[in-house]
Amino acid sequence: MSHVSDEIDQRADDLFRVLSGGGAIAPWEDLADFAPGLGAQVRYGLGAVFTRPGLDMRSRELVTVCMLAALGGSEQQLAFHMGGALRMGATPEEVVEALTLVSVCAGLPRGINGMKVAREVFAKMGIETSPPVEPSQLSSSGPPAISEPGERV
């Protein structure tokens, strides 16, 4: 192995431990006797892509939660990355908001299924959630709009 691949593997190992909260079996270890090539791809992706500069880990995990929820059929990975997002500083409210956005962009079933996973993750992590904020409670002041009045988006 090269020094670069050793470094990527180490970054993957370290990041997996942080995201999982410790104690979980890394996918590349779990797949070693059955599909080592797939395990190596997962490890490389985590070590080379997830550790890139440009996005902080909290944001990267929230983006990953949205993508996995939108894809559907990846509930185990969704739960893992949802826990990772929370461990990286995302709030439960941010996770719920992200999944609400998924329901608009990828369809209600994807958002609803993501919410089911969120409930399970929150319960497992001992997180209690507060009642949602109603749209009438939101402030109308904020950053300026990106689109011009009357512009089709």
Give a concise summary:
With 153 residues, the chain is an all-alpha fold. It has helices spanning 3-20, 27-30, 36-49, 57-71, 75-87, 92-106, 108-124.
Produce the secondary structure layout.
Elements: H1 3-20, H2 27-30, H3 36-49, H4 57-71, H5 75-87, H6 92-106, H7 108-124
Helix pairs in contact: 1-3, 4-5, 4-6, 5-7, 6-7
Describe the structure.
The protein has 153 residues and is mainly α. It is built from seven helices and no strands. The protein has helices spanning 3-20, 27-30, 36-49, 57-71, 75-87, 92-106, 108-124. Helix 4 runs antiparallel to helix 5 (75-87), helix 5 crosses helix 7 (108-124) and helix 6 packs antiparallel against helix 7. The longest helix has 18 residues, at 3-20. The protein is globular, with a radius of gyration of 18 Å. The termini are far apart.
Cα end-to-end separation:
49 Å
| Structural class category | mainly alpha
What's the alpha carbon Rg, rounded to whole Å? 18 Å
**Helical run tally:** 7
Tell me what portion of residues adopts beta-strand conformation. Answer: under 5%
The count of strands amounts to 0
Give the averaged pLDDT, no decimals.
Answer: 91
| Global morphology | globular
Which residues sit in consecutive blocks of at least 5 with pLDDT less than 50? none
Features of the shown structure:
globular; 153 residues; single chain; 0% strand; mainly alpha
